[in-house]
Structure formats: structure tokens, C-alpha cells
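On clarity, I found the account of how folds are encoded harder to follow than it need be. Since the whole study asks how a given chain folds, the encoding of that fold should be made plain. For the editor and my fellow referees, an illustration may be useful. An entry of this sort, consisting of the sequence and the corresponding C-alpha cells, reads as follows:

:::
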Amino acid sequence: MPVEAKPIFRPDVIRLPILGFNLPGKTSQFVPKLQKWAEIISSGSVDSHKEQEILGDFLNDVFCELLGHTRAVDNPKRYSISREKHVQANGKYADAVLGEFGPSANRYVAVLEGKGPKDPLDRPFGGRKVSAVDQAYDYAINLRCNWILVTSIRQTRLYYKGTDKQ
């Protein structure tokens, strides 16, 4: 049975601050990239792709280009996103880990698990024994980080390991 989504912030608390918030000037350069993903999702063309085909592009566009995370190829001495490497659970690796990485540092902040656009995040799907959310929690437990990101490209969720999954 699906769980009702709870907002991260109470609408009555953030309504006034949002009205007075102005985006920084440099955000206009990201609008075309966001519009591209919005079009791919709203048109339904995202559904014709499997996770392996589209997740890497989504992670690079959203987490690297838009949010500013750096990859090992950008700066091998200090980077903040690492893919398919750091943590394993039930024989599988997390799709990405956010933190601080390099030759002398591995500090984990969040684990990221991605699924295909048609995959439900709250229940097992496509022969998997656990949901994407449960899978991501397992990675976070093994990695000892407190933040969990789960995405189906259509939606991205943020969880804190110390609270319930709702």
C-alpha cells in the first residue's frame, strides 16, 4: 500500500520567505537544462528508456552541472560525487555517493539510488526483492552516512536515516 507523501517543509512556514526569494543571476544558465528534463518527463519520452540508458545522464546533468558536484575526472584530488563504487549491499552497489573524495579523504554524506522512470520507489519491482527506498537505506547503513537520495528521474526523494521512511 503506498505511503502518503509528507512535505519536507510546512507550507505555512515557507510561504512568506519564498515570496521574497530571488534566484541568483547565474541560475538562468541552468534553465535550458531543466527545461530539457521537464520536456523529456512531461512528454512521456523518458518512459521509453531503461535505468541504464538514462540515469547516468540525469546524474551528470542534475547533480554535477546544476548542483555543482565534481567527478573524479573533473579533479582526481578532490571530488564530491562517485558512482558505482563505495558501498555494497546484497551484492549490488549504490548508483552514486555524495561526499568528499580523493587520495586522502573519503567522507560520505549521502547515498543515491536510482531507478528507471517507470519503477515505483516504495515497493519491489522487476524481480527485485526490496524496494528502491529499502535498498538505499541498506547502502546508507553499510556506508554509515545519514542522508539517502532515491530517484526514478520522475521524482527524487531525500530521506534522513534517523527517521521513518514516510
About this structure: Residues 69 and 88 are 22 Å apart (CA to CA). Strands lie at 79-83, 88-89, 92-93, 96-102, 105-114, 147-151, 156-160. The chain has a mean pLDDT of 88. Residues 51-66 form the longest helix (16 residues).
